[in-house]
Amino acid sequence: MTEFKPLVFSGVQPTGNLHLGNYLGAIRKFVALQENNDCIYCVVDMHALTAQLVHEDMATQIRSITAAFLAAGIDPEKHIVFNQSQVPQHAELAWIFNCVARIGWMNRMTQFKDKAGKDREQASLGLYAYPSLMAADILVYRATHVPVGDDQKQHLELARDIAMKFNMDFHDKIVPTGLGIDIKVGEEPVHAYFPMVEPLIDGPAPRVMSLKDGTKKMSKSDPSDLSRINLMDDQDAISKKIRKAKTDPDALPSEVDGLKGRPEADNLVGIFAALADRSKEDVLIEFGGQQFSVFKPALIDLAVNVLAPINAEMRRLMEDPGHIDAVLRDGSARARVRAEKTMNEVRDIIGFVR
Ligand code: AQP
Fold first, then answer.
1. Each residue's pLDDT tens digit, 29-86
2. Would you call 113 a catalytic residue per the annotation?
3. Which of 31, 78, 129, 324 is surrounded by the fewest CB atoms within 10 Å?
4. 22 C-alpha to center of ligand 1: Å?
């Protein structure tokens, strides 16, 4: 059975300050994966239009996410760093996927329900079709692995459904053109053009929660800035936010089971573990039985140590927007070559004349 060549793809929206959840759930994993993989990392600026059309600071936001990628340690020469709107093939494949995806599938997407809120009639068509563009982002490179936070799991399942339906519907077109390869879906071998993407969601903090409410995801759009640690926060802000983070009155347990029913404690231990590259078990061996008055200062020191160099490098990079734009132009040119190859093959499979 032929395998798809492993390729990592992921993206981040330029929709506000990057926070610790984006860093631990996504960007930190991007950095680790680049050691042994071919990687493509994208600032998904077209996705940013789905919830809000007009962004006065769009260009700055795009540069800021790019700066975060570079400051965290992503190598834009060995890998590809670019912004989505410079590679129109994403939108072209998304249209085809809009015609592959079923309305019933889209209706099940919980992120649409959350983001559209009560007034669904007023949500943009783009917000509804967001997961189809996300599938195109990944599959226009026929990427196989996608590091994301836990909140994106459902969208990746949809990307697999779209890939599978395309593979099935065009089965007799893929085989004669010789463009597909054999993959195994469960026990069944299937001749496929698009791979079944694998989400990479592991680690001790796959879903970093709000510092104010351990049952809510840490999010850029939370109106309370105290709910999140921003990558651009200085030492004082980080320290204040962790000191004010909601906790319960009990000491930390010695085992992970003891975190059940204690969402805030679980969240802070998960953050500590992810920042220190340790497991939660290991962190609790050190801090089990201790009060938050001991744990929080240790977490502050750790967070400042990890985030301060990234913060300083992001500020330095942001002073030279010309350099950031050049990185994006170069990455986009290389991404376009790969994406156009896929699109030519997709056009042939569909039967478009070219
Ligand atoms: N709280 C989180 N914990 C772990 N991972 C997270 N991610 C986002 N929030 C958390 C991951 O970060 C990557 C980029 O996310 P995005 O900016 O493209 O979209 P998002 O998930 O909509 O981010 P936000 O911050 O939550 O923004 P809003 O407030 O606009 O909804 C993704 O891999 C995501 O999983």
1. 999 999 999 999 999 999 999 999 999 999 999 999 999 999 999 999 999 999 999 9
2. no
3. 78
4. 5
Which two three-digit tokens encode residue 3?
């395998």
For residue 315, CA distances in Å to 70, 73, 232 come to 11, 14, 8
Residue 220 a catalytic site member: yes
Q: Ligand 1 pocket test: which of 52, 152, 229 has the largest number of ligand atoms within 8 Å of its C-beta?
A: 152
User: What is residue 275's predicted lDDT score, i.e. its pLDDT?
Assistant: 97
Residues 288 and 336 in one domain: no
Using one digit for the tens of pLDDT, what is the confidence trace for 149-159? 999 999 999 99
**Has residue 76 been placed in a domain?**
yes
334 and 312, same structural domain?
Answer: no
- Spell out the long-range contacts of 324-331 with Cβ–Cβ below 8 A and sequence spacing 24 or more: 324/63, 324/66, 324/67, 324/70, 325/63, 327/66, 327/70, 327/76, 327/81, 328/43, 328/62, 328/66, 328/81, 328/82, 328/83, 328/86, 329/86, 330/76, 331/76, 331/80, 331/81, 331/82
Pair 161, 33 in one domain: yes
How many angstroms separate the Cα of 154 from the Cα of each of 101, 200, 280?
14, 13, 25
CATH number for position 299: 1.10.240.10
Query: Interior CA angle at 51 toward 49 and 232, to 5°?
Result: 80
pLDDT beyond 90 at 318: yes
Same domain, 25 and 163: yes
Mean pLDDT of 220-249: 95
pTM greater than 0.85: yes
Which residue range forms the structural domain that includes residue 258? 225-317
Pocket test for ligand 1, best of 10, 19, 22, 225 (most atoms within 8 A of CB): 22
